[in-house]
Amino acid sequence: MFKTLKNDLPASIVVFFVALPLCLGIALASGAPLFSGLIAGIIGGIVVGAISGSKIGVSGPAAGLAAIVLTAIGTLGGYENFLVAVVLGGLIQFIFGLLKAGIIGYYFPSSVIKGMLTGIGIIIILKQIPHFFGYDAEPEGADSFIEASGENTFSALLQIVDNVTIGSMVIGIIALAILLLWDKVLSKKAKIFQLIQGPLVAVVVGVIFYVITKSNETLGIEQSHLVSVPIPEDAASFLAQFSMPNFAAISNPEVWVVAFTIALVASLETLLCVEATDKLDPHKNVTPTNRELLAQGTGNFISGMIGGLPITQVIVRSSANIQSGARSKMSAIIHGFFLLISVIIIPKILNMIPLSVLAAILFIVGYKLAKPELFKKMYNLGWKQFVPFIVTILGIVFTDLLKGIGMGLAVGIFVILIKSFQNSHFLHKEGEDVDDGKIKMTLAEEVTFFNKGAILKELDNLPVNSSLELDVRKTKYLDNDIIEILDDFAFKAKERNINIKLISERGIVENPESFIEFFKLEKKS
Q: 402 pLDDT exceeds 90?
């Protein structure tokens, strides 16, 4: 892990600046103490990051749980009672991991996962536009269509005109210009610009701008438009921000209902994020999902014990981590330490960062998740991929993350049922000669995303220095998800010295460079 520190350290700084306002904003939206969001971010980075098998995933408090937390604090009679549910939820998640429930993550179609990433990218941009112009009625991290202020995502945009903060807008534009210049020009000129990340420069410029202009009537930025980290007066007041669960409430049946709800929702969000981040990862690492549930369960147990919010793996932080070039889990761990050290040593400096600067950083993250060319790519894959993709996006934008994914999954299953009605599908593996390492795998007539888990397991279990003969002559329908798995395997096979022989109606191909391009040409022929 330390070998990649030159990549992980700059990435951790970017993730830190993305995570800081989200931790605070999600705590505010949850009706919880602001410090509880920071606790969850610190535990998510250091503890979950250390235990998790993900090299690029980053965990912390999640917006998807904000509504559950807000309601639960009221119904359970206080935050200390709610913390009992968080502790129990962590234990339940740990049991999920022991029961190997992580396999559920493999049964979400690629089109829905890509729709989730794109939908989140669009939501990030839409939700950050008001902050960019200095209209901060809604806390950072909110992702629901209906906002706490009574507005919705689009009506809030109309309110910007009458609520522009000139100073916030000016430094937001300057920060965005710095980020674009860094990303498009400077990072390609010299290594120093890759080591010192654009977001760090933008934040430093934002703090300097605030200090210089705070007495200016036009450009001065009020505290309500800046980051707001709790500032303890001394060590005792710092420690007083931690809360202990009231275990006297453990006999309350409602506490157990909330605990199971947190465990289920947090596990689902984590598994979806794991699937999504693995797809974004340019190095094609595969995260062990059962280990991830064990890590998340441990993190939630500790977070609940010291007063933190529930934790999940979070796509916004994870995608920022990937985009910044992280190579190992050290990035997530270091960002956790940055959160811890900063809230102890430099909270006053953090409270000089304009929210509009952080909005500019999130604009870049959102755009890279929702690039326009992805829509064209999904459309060209056909309606079976495009319809679930679009439904997922619209569901996320106009409801929330889980409902949007549920809508996309329902449509994806309907599409599969149509195909399954026409042809049954199964995976059949033939003959394995242990002595010479030759393995033959024959795919069925119909292979869909339901077969992802089985095929991925078979490919991952292939021994080093072996030979795989893949026969697709009888295959009439091969889901895009399976093609992507095969394409990723071709990348990893070179590292493991596995020889691939692909047999199709077009003939035999030795070690194909790209399964995606091969099957695209096969469809045309």
A: no
DSSP reduced 3-state for 40: helix
What residues form DSSP beta bridges with 439? Answer: 432, 468
In single-letter form, the type of residue at position 33 comes to P
What letter would DSSP give residue 108?
S
Residue-wise DSSP of 142-184: ---SB-TTS-BHHHHHHTGGGS--HHHHHHHHHHHHHHHHHHH
d(CA 385, CA 106): 17
What domain range includes position 440? 427-524
Q: Report how far residue 38's alpha carbon sits from residue 24's, in angstroms, rounded to the nearest whole number.
A: 7
Q: What element of type H or E holds 444?
A: none
Average pLDDT, rounded, for the chain? 90
Looking at the fold, whether 53 and 134 belong to one and the same domain comes out as yes
Residue type, 2: F
Across the strands, what pairs with 443?
427
**Together in a domain, 245 and 101:** yes
Query: Please, are residues 287 and 277 in contact by the beta-carbon 8 Å criterion?
Result: yes
β-sheet bridge partners, residue 446: 477
406 within domain boundaries: no
* Helix, strand or coil, per DSSP, at residue 507: strand
**238 C-beta neighbours (distance < 10 Å), count:** 16
Three-class secondary structure of residue 469 per DSSP: strand
Q: Is the pTM of this model over 0.90?
A: no
Looking at residue 490, which CATH number applies to its domain? 3.30.750.24
In a domain, 414, yes or no: no
Q: HSE (CB half, 13 Å, CA atoms) of 332?
A: 30
**Is 210 found in the same domain as 304?**
yes
Average pLDDT over residues 362-371: 93
68 neighbors 278 (Cβ within 8 angstroms): no
Neighbouring residues of 434: CB distance < 8 A, sequence distance ≥ 6: none
Is 371 inside any structural domain?
no
SS3 content of the chain, % helix, strand, coil (to 5): 65, 10, 25
State the amino acid at position 434 in one-letter form. V
Match 């940055």 to its residue by tokens: 338
In the numeric block, the tokens 């010192």 are attached to: 196
Percent of the chain with pLDDT over 90: 63
Q: What is the pLDDT of residues 175-192, one digit of tens each?
A: 999 999 998 888 888 878
The residue with tokens 């869909």 is 448
Q: Is residue 373 part of a domain?
A: no
- Gap between the Cα atoms of 501 and 440, Å rounded: 9
Compute the half-sphere exposure of residue 425: CA atoms within 13 Å on the CB side of its CA. 23
Number of structural domains (the chain) is 2
Dihedral of the alpha carbons of 7, 18, 57, 258, in degrees to the nearest 10? 160
Q: Are residues 358 and 443 in the same domain?
A: no
